[in-house]
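Reviewers of the previous submission asked for a worked example of the structure-prediction workflow described in the proposal, so we include one complete record here. The input consisted solely of the amino acid sequence. No template or homolog information was supplied to the procedure at any stage.
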Amino acid sequence: MIQLHFLLPGLLGRTRWTGEQAEESVRAPGLERLLSRADMQPAPASSVVQLCACFGLVDEESALPVAALTRTIDTGERPDGYWLRLDPVHLRAGAREIMMTNPDDLQLGSEDNQALGLSCAAHLAEYGLTLDFTAVGRWYVHLPETPELFTLGPQNCIDRDIASDLPRGSAGPLWHRYMTELQMLLAGHPVNSAREQRGLPVVNSVWPWGGGVLPQTVPAQGIAYGDDLLLSGLAHWAGWAHAPLPPDLGNMLNGQKAARAVVFFGPDVLPEPQADPRARPGVIERFERDWFVPLEQALKRRKIDTVWLYPGRGLCLRSGIRQAWRLWRRTRPLQRWRAAP
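From that input alone, the workflow returned the following structure tokens.
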């Protein structure tokens, strides 16, 4: 029997969302029944943590080897030892705080990435550190020993005061210093002057995160669907098959041979409610037709044994044949799920 893990972090989003009038009229009966009849339990709020957990890597985000996993895909090599991401970012000053903008908004091209990376690499080389900036917007540092360093991924820090999100642990102050020195270097960089003239956000800092060492043991075999880089790295590490997202559940099940599957719908497929509220009705309607209604039917007909839905907001909803036939449960409208505290 098939067991599916569906990760849809953009369905409910990361924060409480009351919606707008255009979204309040959306109906998704199949999805609403699935959510309302399922067994609910807490799950990690971070999609990074949840994605890793689906592959058996269970830990706090600061201990997950995200850098090593993504570098596997960026370089085609299996990285040994401890690797840390050191991504270029844009920080903006508010009235009393410093906030990070979405790294996707940088629009960092290969030429800018190369020039900025060369300058930062030359500076870090003075400390015996080698910066790998081959991948645009994803920089890596290899450390000879595992530091006591606790970090958060940039996606968790967007549009909020980063004071409490800075690296912690005994190695934290050292990386604060590296960040400060690189900020000074980047402040007068010719690339940033040119970016300002083009109306683009400047790269004025770097963000350490995702440090860790790849474990040797791998989980039971399965297949991963989705275009996310971390998902690709996890599938490569685990020896799983990896494929793009199918157009609908029927196409996926027709070609499904593995008994376990992880399906990740990233923000490019299912944006968070705040991202584009007016487009949400059409997106949800397509998901209802292509995924949620067929999923409900597949559970009732025992084509799928168990499905775990991760809709965001730190929730996990587990459904099987028993949950699918809980006809007596009152269906909770989707808007109430989004607006719940």
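The chain has 13 helices and 13 strands. We consider this example representative of the routine output the project will generate in years two and three.
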